[in-house]
From TrEMBL, chain B:
UniProt xrefs under InterPro entries: Na/Glc_symporter_sf, Na/solute_symporter, Na/solute_symporter_CS, Sodium:Solute_Symporter
Subcellular locations according to the entry: Cell membrane
Name of the featured protein: Sodium:solute symporter
Membrane topology according to the record: Multi-pass membrane protein
Catalytic reaction(s) noted: L-proline(in) + Na(+)(in) = L-proline(out) + Na(+)(out)
Residue ranges of the TM segments: 6-23, 44-65, 77-100, 121-139, 159-180, 192-213, 233-254, 275-295, 307-333, 367-386
Family label: Belongs to the sodium:solute symporter (SSF) (TC 2.A.21) family.
Main location class: membrane
PANTHER family xrefs: SODIUM/PROLINE SYMPORTER-RELATED (PTHR48086), SODIUM_PROLINE SYMPORTER (PTHR48086:SF3)
UniProt keyword annotations, A-Z: Cell membrane, Ion transport, Membrane, Sodium, Sodium transport, Symport, Transmembrane, Transmembrane helix, Transport
Amino acid sequence: IPKKDGIFFIGIVVYVVMFFLPWTHEIKILNVSLLAWGGALLFLLAPITGIILTLIDSTDR
Amino acid sequence: MKFIEVTIIIFYILFCILLGIWAQKRISTSDSGVDNYYAAGRNVGTVANSLAILAALGSGGSFMAGPGSVWQLGIPFLTWMTVGSIVGFALASILVARPLRNSRKVTVPEFLNDRYGGNKIIKIAVPIVIILGSGMYLMSQMKAGGLITSYVTGLSYEWGLVVIALVFILYVSMGGMLAVTWTNLLQGSLMILITLSLFTACIIHLPTSWMDFFKESATRNPTLGTVGTTVPIVGYLGAFVTWATAVCITPHLVMRIFTSTDARSAKLSLNISMLIYGILMLGLTFLTAPFIGTFGEAVLQNYASDMWLLLIAESMFGPIMMGIIAAGIMAAVMSSTDSLLLAISSAVAYDLYKGVINPKANQKKTLFMSTVVTWIIGIVVMVLALNPPEYLVVLYTVQ
């Protein structure tokens, strides 16, 4: 697995674990827990990172 | 149902059938008919494939039941469940899209059979798993299609199911993946159009600033923003992992990778479709769902939560836009059911019939078999969907 793809995979695992730690449950922004905002942000972060990794991958050209 | 709405729906259905006829003509005059029928000639561009993947993934449940589910189960659970499929596709795009596309196969069993050196068990077991798994999913989607068609046309559930099923069986049997791709393009565009129209209407109808309105909604319904009120935390993680690992390997979505012009286009299509899907789901969650609170409990109790989205739309739009929304919701269902039907019929006609029973079958015989099998499976599943097993209700209310 190319290193940058491996880093993406590990990054997602770390991101998910970080937002599932108990401290995110009680902090609220606009009356919605930080855990939910973390999930919402991932809606955009995951595909945008996937697009960038594809565009910089020279092996597909 | 009013005349204008029904007219718009009839135009949409006729357009889908015309696309099927056009695809059949193109396949019948082509030398590579099997490639055209199962992989749309492998020349579907990035933008077209992105819309087709979006349409195949986003079923009626995503759009109809989305806001209602958010209101009832809360944003924390719904976001982590739904984002699982987006993360799964993003990872699949960088890990497996290239070998899948470069294999130049047309079905998932064919790819696995090649990968594991022509193992006889894999040759037979994988198509059977696809037939059973996708068959149950197709049945649940057909039931959802019958309910939605019944709602938007005023027909009974049984006739609604027959109408929607016959339309997509007809164009899938005629044009295969080529017809599915072009109808999915139309359906994906329609889904984006109605969702963005709904977002625009929601912004126009905001009584105060969005931040104040959203905060007030979350105060009125504490479930909306609080962790662990409806599902335990471990359930969030379970739903995330399940969706991340299961949704991206469904055969009707993997087959779209085979249709791409090259591996790079396949990878981009997967991520672009997920980005659009993510934006639409975020809008439905953070902009549309809070409007449910404006109706009050007394009104909401008179409707199933799946219908709350239409309650919001009816309060904002006139008959022409409601007709387009009705067609868009039918499109969301049909774009998933047609892909599922093609995945099942390819498992029978291409993988079992041509792959195991009659390997010497020529192109004409294989395509004829595909058409016959599509009709048989479509009709059988339609009849079963008239009175489906109770546990299938869980399937079609979730996705």
